[in-house]
Amino acid sequence: MNFSTLPKIELHVHLDGSLRPETIIDIAKREGISLPSFDIEEIKKEITAPLECESLNEYLEKFAIPNLVMQSKENLRRITFELFEDAALENVKYMEVRFAPLLHTAKGLDVEEIIQSVLDGMKDAENQYDIKGNLILSCMRTMSADRAFEVVEKGKQFLGKGVVAIDLCASEVEGFCRNFVEPIALAREYGYRVTIHAGETGIGKNVLEAVELLGAERIGHGVFIKDCVEAYNIVKEKQVVLEMCPTSNVQTKAVNHFSEHPIYDFHKDGIKVTVNTDNRTVSDTTMANECNIIAKEFNISYEDYKQIYHNSVEASFADIETKEKLKKYI
């Protein structure tokens, strides 16, 4: 199977983890932003996590430099366009991009301006390429529930205009769901769909609570349901979809090697899995690369790929018309 030419769908990719190194250097030079180096190879090293990365927290350090150049409307628009362009050029037909608006307020932008700028960049790409997109607003688990309320309230006006869902991300501690029950309940009331990062760092119970307490329809990663029977069972019974990211999961040490990744075991047991990059730049990957890893490690067939593709279509937060169109590609 040639995954570079096959249609693909991505449901889990972070905007600030997917910048072109050339763009970081270009913006920094133009705006006088200090970088550790202006050499492209050096910048690549600074913003790419090695496979030998020690932990999720070490992986998350790679986002510091990209955020320096994501503090203006023009830059956010350009960076979003380029991410969709890169995806379209490898035949990704639909992509849901997530970002945390509160990370881009350092130079005075308000949340509404930030969301609108990212929407503009997405629409620019949709007008130029055969790709459709939607946006997911991420709330940082390291911030208070009040800040999550702020994102939910300010993002509300963009529902139905390209924003589709709410997310919780950043470093994972046990029991984090309990801190965000009210803002996520309000988001559901407003019409946001819900996907939650959980079970990425050895805490399978977080997945159980994300489903039971927050109403998560999808789970970002969810690797550690393998060690929590209750979480495994609820994901399987409720057909909660896992957004799995093989390279990232090796880097953050959710698994030590690709061969140990549970994605194919989950798939064979009837759990709905999807394949995603997580962060194109930080993980130095593409959708074709992630699919190739799974194909090579687990010898997946075209029928397996087709099933995973259709899982992604069904689990997407796209409208019915878009879903019908996406189904016809495969």
Describe the protein.
There is one protein chain. The chain has helices at residues 21-31, 40-47, 56-60, 64-68, 73-88, 111-128, 145-155, 181-190, 205-212, 229-237, 246-251, 263-268, 287-298, 302-315, 320-329, and strands spanning 8-14, 92-99, 132-140, 163-169, 193-198, 218-221, 241-244, 273-275. α8 (181-190) links the parallel β4 (163-169) and β5. α7 (145-155) runs parallel beside α8 and α9 (205-212) packs across α10 (229-237). The chain is of the alpha/beta class and 330 residues long. It has a single domain (8-329), classed as TIM Barrel (Alpha-Beta Barrel). It is globular.
> CATH H level: which superfamily?
Metal-dependent hydrolases
Number of domains: 1
CATH architecture: Alpha-Beta Barrel
**Which percent bin holds the helix content?**
40-55%
Order of helices and strands: EHHHHHEHEHEHEHEHEHHEHHH
What composes the largest sheet? 8 strands, parallel
What value does the Rg take, in angstroms?
18 Å
Our count of helices gives 15
Q: State the assembly state of the protein chains.
A: single chain
Enzyme class: hydrolase
Family: Belongs to the metallo-dependent hydrolases superfamily. Adenosine and AMP deaminases family. Adenosine deaminase subfamily.
Organism: Neobacillus massiliamazoniensis
Cofactor: Zn(2+)
